[in-house]
Amino acid sequence: MALIANKKTNKILALGAESTGNFSVYFGGKVYFSPEFGDLLEEKNFQKFKKIVLNYLKENKIKPDIILTDLHPFYKTTIWGAEMAKKFKAKHIQVQHHLAHIFSAIGEKIIIENCKLKIENCIGIVCDGTGYGEDGKIWGGEVFQIQTGKLQTKRIGHLENQTMLSGDLAVKEPVRMLIAILNKFLIKKEIYKFVKKFYTRNQFELLYNQLQQNFNCQETSSAGRVLDAVSVLLGFSENQRNYKHESIDLLEKNSHKPYLGLKPKITNYELLTTPLFEYLIKNLHRDKKRLAAAAQLYIAQGLYKICQISNVASQIYFAGGIANNKIISSYLESKGVFVNKKIPRGDAGISFGQIIYFLTNWNK
């Protein structure tokens, strides 16, 4: 339990996201924060999740007035949350995924400093693999300006949009991301040289034609997808994912003292990631472990630079699954950015962030 001083008397149930099951409940001025339930896409995990949520509400005689879920319309937790809202005659409020990440960090700082649930304007950096954006695209490398108390949040920057070739399949097969990125500056036969280890000529032809036709392709600003592609290009991971963040974990594990001199390229508050791959391709003959570190540092420096040029002098927070990356988080912490230490930085902290978002902002 975490004590959160607030005038609101609502009983609030937050159901989190989906890839890492977790729920939080607010009542009596406190937040109950549950353990993790694993990936809720696995039906056995989801059934256990629902059972424990309902048991907790029953045992504590809680009838929620507010039910908070992710913005993604097809998450199991979103659909179930809407059903629960009807059952309890509660208000169903959807919270954008990355804002919940930021507010999980804000909430931890509030608890640590034992201060009131009122904070000054701040900036939040969020890096993860997948989050449903307000424009319907897949976000994951974002910078937000937050004005609390007025429910004003503004996405002021992000990573360059890259193409997820075959949509979600690009998460499982990161070479699809690599093909799409290299397509921005290399000709067809040059691209194939870098991916022939993973696909036959015929397979590549099909993927390349699919990309040209923009068939089953999604745009994403995800830092996770970019780093997946870096890991594959440098030879640290294969064209598969055995667990969440595997490619990024291998990239970090194989990183060494970064090459310096790679300056972030930013246009209209957008950190361009295509130039990063142009740099890597030109320097593949060099120490790949140092290139790996340079690539991660590029992301950290670029996102921090966006915060600087925004001219908003305020506290900066960093959250999301990639906040667990030591190279990126260490750089940002060296600049005074606040990063969670107790509340999980990834999706297991989403439900807590949803609660804090509501308590600090919602005044309707």
UniProtKB/TrEMBL annotation:
Pfam (any one): HypF_C
GO biological process per UniProt: protein maturation
Similarity-based family: Belongs to the carbamoyltransferase HypF family.
Domain Carbamoyltransferase Kae1-like: from-to ranges: 124-354
Domain of life of the native organism: Bacteria
UniProt xrefs under PANTHER family: CARBAMOYLTRANSFERASE, CARBAMOYLTRANSFERASE HYPF
Organism annotation: bacterium (Candidatus Gribaldobacteria) CG_4_10_14_0_8_um_filter_33_9
Ranges annotated as spanning the membrane: none
Protein name: Uncharacterized protein
Secretion signal, residue range per the UniProt entry: none
Domain HypF Kae1-like: 8-108
GO MF entry, a single one: carboxyl- or carbamoyltransferase activity
